[in-house]
Structures are given as C-alpha cells and as structure tokens.
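== Sequence and structure of one protein ==
=== Format: two labelled lines per protein ===
==== Data for this protein ====
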Amino acid sequence: MTDGARDSIVLKSAVARDQAQCKMNARKTSQGQKTEDVASVKALASQAVTALAARRAERQSDMSRNSLQDLIDAVLAPDPGAVNRVIARMQRSGISNEEIMGTLIPDAARRRGEGWLDETLGVAEGTIGSARLQRGLHGLTAKPDVDPGAPMVLVIVPEDEHHTLGALVMAEQLRRAGVSVTLCIGEQSQVAVEKVATGRYRAILISVAALEKLSAVRQLVDDLRRASTKKVPIVVGGAIGHIGSEVTGSTGADYAENDPYRALRLCGLTVSATGDIETVA
C-alpha cells in the first residue's frame, strides 16, 4: 500500500470519527435541551398551580367572610328559617360542612355574644339567635359510625350554664374524629357523677362560660373524681378556657383548654393524619 493510500485511509477514518463525535454531541445537546425544556415546563406548571391555588384560597376566604356576615344577619332576621337557608347556600357554593360547623357557626355565635356584652343585643335576641344557630348545627350533624372500641369522652355543660352551642360543636367535631361522645347538658351534677361511675371515659370535658360558675365547677370536679374508679383527666374549656392556670387553680381540673384536639392530646389521645384517634405514647 502506498503512503498516499495509507494517508487517505487514515484521513477517512479520522473524518468518520469526527462525524460520529459530532452526531453524539448533537444527540447530547438535543437531550440536554429536551431536559431543560421539560424542567422549564414543569417549573411553569408549578407556578401556575400555585397561583391558581392562591386565587382559589383568596376566593374561598372572601366567600367565607361574606357567608359569615350573611349568617350573622340571618341569626336575628324576622324570618326564623333564614339561618337554614344561608347554610344551604353555603353548601351549594362549596363551603364544607366542617367549615360551617367548626368555624362559621362558632364565629357567628361569638359575634352574637359580643353584641350581648356591649348591649347592642338584648337577652331575648341572644336567646333566639342561639336557638337558631343550634337548629342550623343540628341540620349539619349526621351521627357518624363510631368504632365500638373508640375512646369514650364525657362532655358536660353544668346546670344553669346557658351557653351550650360551643359544647355541641365540640361534641360533633370529636365524633367526626372517631371519638365516642356522651353529652350531659344542663343536668344536675348527680347525673354526670353517675355517668362517670358507670362509664369508662378516657377524658371529661367541661364547658363553662362565666367566671362566677367556677366555684360550682370546683364542687363538680371533686364529685367526679370521687366517682371515678381511676384517675380520668378533666379539662375545663369554653369562654373561660383561655385563662389557663387561674381556671385549673379555681376548679381543680387538670387542664384548661378551648381547642378540642389539644384537649384530647392533653388527655393522652391524639387525632392521626387519617382522622383516627390514637393513644399518645
């Protein structure tokens, strides 16, 4: 083979290698570009989803605020069916029963209570408003199936305590979380004592609205402790629950807490991510 022929073969081989490398680089560049394009599309999609969720949350917040005002107006409207119609309209607009029951009705009750305190509402108006909200709450509650082995909790509203709506809301929230709830509302103390003596409760929750009731609650707590065959944690909540150590000191209760789920945790129970009740380790 001549040197010229040999050089020609080497040149052709080098050119072939260069062409193959170029094709490979082109493929890599194309793949890299595709990867960058995919990442860019994903980033844009994520931004769009985030913006859409933010707008949806803003609309939902505006809807809830407007619905709350509608509910407050309906509480004292001349038409006794106004509250139920407002609640039905909320449901049609996409507001969940949980939000209506756990947020909007309690907020409307709180506003009603503020009106009674600053004397813009009379006692009769307050009583009517409370009754209407309770009827509205009743329409939202469907007794859930509770596991026979679910922890039992006793919810007490003491005798002569007229603020019962908060306790009813709490009881429904606990039932939806899988707790077996026994209500004792406005009964004589002996009724609650007998329930504790014969039941196997994991917690006792007492709802109190007025400071002047604390001395009576102290006697009730003492009676409940004597009736129980084992130490059952007692939590005092309601309108005075935020006072904390003053409430526990005055009543002898173990804890003062308004949030039902935090109250459960204080008593050794917690709500899992699936909504089931678990024992706190």
User: Anything to note?
Assistant: Residues 3-75 form the longest helix (73 residues).
